Amino acid sequence: MKGLLTIGVCALTSLVACAQTSSTTTSGTSETKDAAAVVYMTKEISPEAIVKLYKALGREAKGKVAVKISTGEPGGHNYLQPSLIADFVKLTNGTIVECNTAYAGKRFSTDDHRKAAEEHGFTAIAPVDIMDADGEVKLPLKDGKHLKYDIVGSHYPDYDFTVILSHFKGHAMGGFGGAVKNMSIGIASSNGKGYIHSAGKIETAEDLWNNIPEQDLFLESMAEAAKSVADHCGDNILYISVANNLSVDCDCSSHPEDPKMHDLGVLASLDPIALDKACTDLVRNSDDHGKVHLIERIDSRHGMHTLDYGEQIGLGTQNYKIVSLDEE
């Protein structure tokens, strides 16, 4: 179990011209009082598709823009490729941001993390900021059940706008990694990751293995940390997820399992819960028999509980509407 957790501690109304848009409505939950969130989608996975989705959202990334991605653990190969995201990052004049890991891999120290980002090609397309290189700060969290605050890299408050640019895939501890994980675990400092993974028991990564909580408490803590980031940003945040290289393992794994199902596309929303729900629904509704592996990973880790709890605390809604940007 300890080996499994080590991998996991790195632990995704039409506003487009009718001639170019087809729209399908999907309710992630039964009848709710919440209005359906819009999730834009294209099956095309390309630099142009990411830019197209960004423009469809209608929310401009202004000021000093943080583009939160996973730089990928060395040895892994499923992380978002620089060539795929470069046009979008340059369009927003964004800085690629990350924080150090809570596990002793090749992104645990700032120097090693910067080296990994360079080797993976990210420093060639944009500035890269390891946000906890100079320490950490606490973001407020209102009415947290497990966390009192979120502990993030000290550079993070310097940014005016945040883009959560996620690779949607499986995850050894959370079941899946998408927008919520990327904005919670991803923006947390190394110690902040320990705080989330321990459901608030400790504020360090050092003694994490002796403070692993019940699974659902960890998932709820991820949602609480994400809510802290969302509240900090207000309207100055958006979410894009690329559902490709659909391994059951996260990009934090240096030896991820090869994907067993085909790529699905790129999705974007102003609601992180709706976006993650749409990505998981696409997996479940796929006609690819290989989906059973990813579904098993999600369900065996109670992954959907993250979204249930996130909806409960006001992070977003699972009631969504897909707006396709693909031509009919």
Structure, described:
It is built from ten helices and 13 strands. It has one domain. The strands form three sheets. Strands 1-13-2-12-11-8-3-4-5 form a nine-stranded mixed sheet, sandwiched between helices. The model is unreliable at 1-33 (pLDDT under 50). With 328 residues, the protein is of the alpha/beta class. The longest helix is centred in the last third of the chain and has 19 residues, at 215-233. The chain has helices at 2-8, 47-57, 82-91, 110-119, 179-184, 190-197, 215-233, 272-285, 291-300, 304-312; strands at 22-27, 37-42, 65-68, 95-98, 128-130, 136-140, 149-153, 161-167, 169-171, 175-177, 237-243, 265-269, 319-324. β6 (136-140) and β7 form a beta hairpin. α2 packs parallel to α3 and α7 packs across α10.
**What is the percent of helical residues?**
25-40%
Ends apart, CA distance between termini:
47 Å
Order of helices and strands: HEEHEHEHEEEEEEHHHEEHHHE
Number of strands: 13
Residue windows where pLDDT falls under 50 for at least 5 positions? 1-33
Rough shape?
globular
